[in-house]
Write a structure and sequence with these properties.
The protein is of the alpha+beta class. The protein contains 24 helices and 24 strands.
Length: 728
Amino acid sequence: MLRSLAKTALTARARLTSSVSGPVARTCHSTVLRATVIPIGRKSVNMMYNSIRTFTTETSSDQDEQQEKIIGETKKKTFQAETRKLLDIVTHSLYSEKEVFVRELVSNASDALEKLRHSQLTDSSLDAGKPLEIHISVDETKNTFTIQDYGIGMTEEEAISNLGTIARSGSKAFLENLEDKGVAGSTKDKIIGQFGVGFYSAFMVGSEIKVYTRSAKPGSKGYCWTSDGSGSYEIAEAENVAVGTKIVITLRDECKEYAKEALIESIIKKYSNFVDYPVHLNNKKINAVQPLWTKDKSEISDQEHTEFYRYIAGAWDNPQFKLVYKTDSPLAISSLLYIPQRHMEVLGMQREEPGVSLYSRKVMIQAKSKALLPEWLRFVKGVVDCEDLPLNVSRELLQDQSLSKLRQVLTGRVIKWLENESKSDPTTYNNFFEEFGNFIKEGVCTESESNRANVAKLLRYESSVGKPGEVFSLKEYIDRMKEGQENIYYSCVPKRKFAEESPYFEEFKEKGVEVLFLYDTVDEFVVNNLRQVGQHKLVSIDAADIKDTVFDNDSKSDSNDSNASKEEALSKEEAKLEAENIADWFRQTLGMQVRKVDVSKRHMSHPAVVTEHDSPAVRKMMAMMSGAAKVGEDNLPPTPTSLEINVNHPIIKKVWSIKSQNPEFAKQIAEQIYDNALIAAGVLDDPRSMLKRLNTIMEASLSASDASKSKSTVMQPKMIEVVEGEKV
């Protein structure tokens, strides 16, 4: 018989479906089917009811709204004068964006569901008869926005108290009551509301608001609260009101866009995507992404990390580093941070925006917050949730200096995170530094004095002791320093080859002193800001007077005498006097181009070097500020430098010997020596300025070479070939 009844029911459903359509038909055929049930025993009846119930479909939201009907006397109440003023402030001044009304109403709905969930732990009689969910519907035709939760609901007294009084937070009172009883537990962390003004944000977009509510307490009645925000409200008993709260907003003409499903979906995902309860928009679940930062580190899989990173960063790559960071002191922080594989600034595109958003109790407070991390860490992506953050009433700004403290804690933790990654996986970190190194260098230049040394631990540079492409930290350099070495030495050059061929590097190579090679223009600013690491100063190898015990030996003072030939017949005093005369002649010849000319004590094979010159990076920056087309002697005059000459170099000796016979040519040689030294230092603005002189020198050299060959040919004796047996 059971099988026969089921067959009859299916036949009846098929006939009804083929003849009638629409929501009314679905309701009618459901009623007809239930009327056909025959009591043939308790078990059979229950089974039959369940079987037939599968044919029932949900009624539309329009019918649900029609079912709610006012049946009691309407009581009209007036907001107090102070309340009306507050309502006007909330409606017109408190929030910077109208869209946040969605965030506020979703947060209130989440709180209502959490209150019911917690209350059910101690009172099993409380039941909404519905799943703990939030349902939102929008209707462009009716120009309405509706949000409904099946939470704790309100009695008449609670509705008057909570809705009729601005700045009275029912959620806050609920928590205070739990704290007094000492049973707040995890609920305290899940309740969002604090100020009692979020509901009134709906008046920013609504011309009229209706609130249908019924308490989850057994035997409670339903009520309808209505207001247009002008200064009064009405409340009356209503029937067919579901347990929980339903808010129907009739939108203002200028706010009709909030009846668009696509816009509301984007707002929910922006602000409320991580609330504890499911949010449905027009029967579609919206918040499908889990708030991973609330989980323990061990509970999050790599796949979950990848999906969450791609969602929060709007990216398609995989994160190369990830950090789950939680702490209770000095602030309660739960964070999930990522570092991507690439960044857009490397392509010369727009500057990266901050990538970390601030949440409080899973509700977004600031998207891509500039206040959470310093600007040099803008490449970091993720979420920071601070539960005890002291927000202002609009939940958009902070009331005190806690954000500064939060920034300090997070910055220190991110630096430590990167340092740990560099130790655990040096190869991966070095690849990261190759891509993001300029951000780290920016951090050294912009961080406070107290934090600069910590950022410097993240720097990586090539070294004279390593292979091309092999990089080292400053600590590794210090660990390898020669005994007695006091300074960390570096050379700012565009390429490794230039550094190894530099006249400044020769002595360091001879002594076996390691030199760091800095290839980027920004590196000069880095070392100038850093100045020293621990007790060791950062010193450029082209510095004028390097004082370090590693160079203190007797050979240094005699270094320029090793190749001497002419001076062998002279006393040291005579040699010193001649060297000073050569330096004085260079000083007079070069004039205002140099501050001074000294006899060099360096070990070098070059005729001269310059010291105390402008930083090449600063020089380039000054040129850009002046304008590339306007850079010239008048706009950007060269800064005089100090010249050190190697009096034992053949070129210096030769120019000294011809200065009397051909003073003009000797002057050109001296100027070329100086320009060559500027090129070696990287501070010659435009090498084209010396082309004419260089051509003259080459022409003279070739002429001298031709003259020498002609003279050699004239003086060469003619060789006579003698044939065997012939007399000469």
